[in-house]
C-alpha cells in the first residue's frame, strides 16, 4: 500500500516497507520476476490545510514531502522500482482517474443524487460516516456534525455487493479482514411487506402504503406499530393529520439532526419517537389497525426506511414500545413451551429473539403451530399472493459517495450545461487540471467554485456557456486503481495496457496497515472488478477470473488500541489518526537508523513481533541485533581467512565419507534454509526466520574443521539468507567472502560476481534435515535410570527396547538376578526423547 506523503516517515511505514522489501529481495533471489513499485497517495485534506495554515501551494507542499520521504525510504535500504513511481496528484495520473470516472459514467455506474450529508461546520466540508465519531462529532475538527442536502455523485458499488461478498471466499486474506468486509457489505435475507395506509383525513398521501423490510417474516403477526425514518417522504405537513402535523414535523427535524453520522449510531439511538397520527392495515389481517410512528432508530438509508415494530421479539422495538407506551403482542415462543404462550419468555427482558414456534392463537391464523423457519416461508408466500409482500435480500452496503467539496483532489470531469444538462468532459480534453490560482481559506464549500475563469467553460455539446462541476473525487478513487497503473506506469495513451495489466495482476502480496481493512480494500476490489468486467484487463490462466485485485493480503498490526476499534468494523479513519499518534509511531525512524544503522533497525523490527501483531517498539533490545551483526562480521572474517580445501561440487560427491561434524554442519544449514524459506514464502513469521539464522550463526561459530567445504557452504548460505533482511550487511559480507576467493570454491550455484542479490537463494536438501543421532532418556517404572546416547533417530518402540536390552545397564534394571528378562507390562514412548518401561516387580 502506498503511503500518504505527510513528509515524515513513521515507524508504521518502516515496518510495511521493510516487510515488502525483504519479501521482494527474497523472491528475486528465488528467481522470480518481482515488481516492487512505490508511489504516493498524494491528494487529500492535509495539503489543503498546510496551504491554509502556512500559505504554501498544496502541490509544492506535497512535492517537498514526497522528496523528503523518498530520501528517508532510501535510508532504510528499500529497493523499489522507482521507474514506475507515481503520484495521484500528478495530472498524468489523475487524467486516468478522471478517465475511469467517465468509464463508470458511460456504463451507467455513477449517478447524481441529492443526498443528506454530514456537514462539518468548522472545516466546511462533507464528511464520510467513518469520519463522524460515536458522539456525532467530526474526527478532524471535533465540531458537532450537521446534516445538509447536496447534489452529489455516487458510484453504484451496491450493484457489485453480491460479487464482492461471494468472491471473498477465494482470497488468501486474514479471516478477520474478510469478515470485516462481509459485515460491511452486510447481506440480509428477509421480506418486504406493504401496509396500506388508512386515509382518515382528506389529504393526498405520496404513497398509499408503507413498505417495511424485515428479517423475521414469522413475527408478522406480532407487529404492534410501524416506525418510519425521520426523513421518510411521508413526514411532511401536507400529508399528516392537520391537528398534529406541525408538531410532528418539528420533532422529526430534531430527531434527524441528532443523527448525524448515521450507521450504527442511529441503531443505538435514544428510542425517541413521535406518533404521526397515521394508521396502516396489517397485510394479512386487514381488520387490524397499526399506528405509525417516527423513530430515531430507523435508518432512512437501510431497507425501505421503515420497520414493523415487534416488541416481543426485537430488543430495539421493545425499548421503543416501552418509551412510547405501545402494547406488546407475542407471536413466537420457545418450541418446548406450551404453544398457547402462557410461559413467560426467558432472558432479562420480556423479549424472545430466537427462532421458535408460532403460538396457536387466533392472531397467528393458519400459521399457529408452525416453526419459525416454516412460517417465514409460508407467511411470505401468503403475502405475495395478494401482492402485499415478497422475499428480498438487503445489503447494508451503500452506494459510494464520490463528490468532495475540496480543492486538493481530481476534479470531477463533468460540465453542467443549462440546455444539455450533465455533459461528460470529452476524453481528448482530459485531464481537467486543477486551477492553481484558488484562494484556500477552509471555509465556504467547494473552493473550485470560486475560480470563476475555471468554472465557466463551453458546453462540449452545444458550445453554449456552461459550468464545470466544482467538486473533486474522493481520494479513495485515486487509490482504487494505482496498482494497475504500476503495471504500465509510463503509458501516455491509456491508464494501462490490457496486456501488461493482465500479465501483472492480481497483486501477489499486498501489504499494509489493518486500518485499510474495510474501505480502501472494498473500493479497490470494486473498481478492479469493474475494469475487469469492462475488459480493461483480463486474467492469466492462473487467475480466479473474477477481477479480484489482491490475491494475498498481509495486514500489519499497529500499536495502541486502534486496531481493536477497527476489529469491530468501526471508524477506520478515526482510528488511523489515533494510531499515528500512538507510542511507536512517535519514534522517529531517522534517528533510530542514524544511531543503530538500517540493517539493525530492519532486523530488530522484524524480530520483535510477527507482522500481524501489534508492535511495541523497544529501543533497548536493538543493541542485541547490532551485536549479532558484529558477531556475524567476525564469523565471516575468520571464515574468509581459511578458504575451503575443496570445491563444493567435489565435496558433495564425497558425501558418504563426510565426518560427523561435516554432516551436522550440512544438516544445520539445511534446517535454517528450510525455516527461513518457509517463513518468507509462506507464513511470514519473519521473527522465526531470523531466529533460525541466529541459531545457524551460533552453530557455525563452534565448527572446528573450518576448511571443510560444508562449513563454507554454511557460511555462504547464511550470508545469502541474511541479505533480504539486512541488505547492506549481506552485500558487505558477500564481498568479503568474494575477495578472499572463498566463494569460488564454496558456492554451488553462482560465481562471486554480481553481488549477493545476484545469487540464488539456497535450496533445501530434504534428505539432510533428519537429526544424525538422538539421546533417549530411559525411565524404569517412572524413574530416570540412564540415557541411550547416539541413538539412531526415529526408531520405533520395539527397536529401541531391543537396543536397551543390550546395554550393560539393562542387566541391573531389566533382568532378574538369574539373567532372565523381567516382564515388560507397558512402555511409554516419546519418539527421539524418552522411553518409560514399566516392568513387573
Ligand atoms: C421485524 C423484526 C422482528 C425484526 C424481529 C427483527 C427481529 P438486518 O438483519 O441487519 O438486516 N430494520 C429494517 N429496516 C431498518 C431500518 N431502516 N432501520 C433500522 N432497523 C431496520 O436487520 C433487519 C431488521 O432490522 C429488520 O427485521 C427490522 O426489524 C430492522 F423479531 O423486522 B425486523
Ligand atoms: Zn450544452
From TrEMBL:
GO terms for molecular function: aminoacyl-tRNA deacylase activity; ATP binding; leucine-tRNA ligase activity. Keywords: Aminoacyl-tRNA synthetase, ATP-binding, Ligase, Nucleotide-binding, Protein biosynthesis. Residues 2-133 form the Methionyl/Leucyl tRNA synthetase domain. Its EC number is 6.1.1.4. Residues 397-611 form the Aminoacyl-tRNA synthetase class Ia domain. GO terms for cellular component: mitochondrial matrix. The keyword Acyltransferase does not apply. InterPro entries: aa-tRNA-synth_I_CS, aa-tRNA-synth_Ia, Leu-tRNA-ligase, Leu_tRNA-synth_edit, M/V/L/I-tRNA-synth_anticd-bd, Methionyl/Leucyl_tRNA_Synth, Rossmann-like_a/b/a_fold, tRNAsynth_Ia_anticodon-bd. Residues 666-789 form the Methionyl/Valyl/Leucyl/Isoleucyl-tRNA synthetase anticodon-binding domain. It catalyses: tRNA(Leu) + L-leucine + ATP = L-leucyl-tRNA(Leu) + AMP + diphosphate. GO terms for biological process: leucyl-tRNA aminoacylation; mitochondrial translation. It is an enzyme of class 6 (ligase). The keyword Ligase applies. It comes from the Eukaryota. It holds the Pfam family Anticodon_1. Residues 183-381 form the Leucyl-tRNA synthetase editing domain. It is found in: Cytoplasm; Mitochondrion matrix. Belongs to the class-I aminoacyl-tRNA synthetase family. NCBIfam families: leuS_bact (TIGR00396). This is leucine--tRNA ligase. It comes from Linderina pennispora. The lineage of its organism: Eukaryota, Fungi, Fungi incertae sedis, Zoopagomycota, Kickxellomycotina.
